[in-house]
Amino acid sequence: MPLESLADFFQPGIAPDSLSGVNRLQQAWPYLSVFVTLFRGGDEEVLMRLLVLRELGGRADAPRWTPQEIAQRFAYLNDTKLATILGRLREGELLVYDSDGGQYQLSEGARVALAALATLIDFAGDDVELGYLTSQVAAGQAVGQLSDDALKHLLARLNELYGEFEEALESQSEFRIRAAQHRLEAVWRWVAKSTEVIRSLTADDTLSLSALNQAQAIALAQSRMLALAGTFERRLAQLAAQRVHLGSSGLTSTDIADWLRRQAVGQLADQLTGCLSINPEPAFIATPELADMAEFELLARERAKAGNTTLPGSVAAPLSGELEVERLFAAEAMYDELLTLGLQLGESGADHIPIQQAVLADSYNETAYRLSLLSLIGDPESHGDASIVAALAKLPFTLHGGEAVIEPEHPEVATLSDARLLPHTPN
């Protein structure tokens, strides 16, 4: 795809090839163009192209086809339509014709597209997205080609499902809660599968830091979702205790509500025939009475609301899991950076590390958090911990100086202590 045609989509002065996202798509365009050929046109055309291509690619023992074999295999299709489909597949380079042997065979791009579509089609009817994303992460890990995008999509789907389940619980609707509980049971096996995959990922020493951070975030999202199973049961038990039993009939308010939900609008209207009566508006109300009613609705009611001094009800504090994970990532990044600076210190022969090299980050918040972590270095009370706190406490540094301030070149940090980290060798 030429970059000149892409330039029209961007602001003046921005070159498409300067964007990493565009470059990555351009490199994959030979495979992406296969999907363009497959899915261009009406639904019927797309379905028939996929049918023909899957049939041609499904014969593994003899992958080459003669025109006569193709005509026999698709004898149930219209000859003109079949010729059009084969022509489109050849134009899009999904089907290659060998003029010497007089046979057709699938191209490399067509094989890749069929493999991706086969996985997607096999998941149809289940929670296709979560199962498919889990399979992509597992496959990438198995072949050593783990994609950060696949991890991000899996994390996003888990967070979406958790949000849907949480909304159902907050709705206090027994029907929504039961539907959400059934949905959780449907995706339970995929959550269990992804838990196994993430457990093996976090145990991989060769995993990059960004992939490890994504895997830890996925593990946190999975634990939050699995904790909802008991919450559903408790909330349903609370709602069951609030049901109203209709005499000795054995029916409850939940049974009546469920029956009403399954009735069509026309059936409900027929049930109400003769049960409602229309009362005409009284014509004997004089203008003063109407004015009094209007004054109450427009003014007095609002004044009563404004004078209400009742304290608001209690609200549950927001979950702090995401903030804790973010801080954990920042602490791990600082630990890795201090290890690198320590190695560079030994190679360069310098006697200290300026504090700005250790704590300055992209934002003020992260810089301040890093500065607070320096107090952990050498702390004997933190050595027994198994977390990143213990790792920071065991670093062979000591903090000295700090009487004066410096002015670093940073957009959000104006001044900083002139402290320094000195190498420390334990006795």
Automatic annotation (TrEMBL):
<protein>
    <submittedName>
        <fullName>Uncharacterized protein</fullName>
    </submittedName>
</protein>
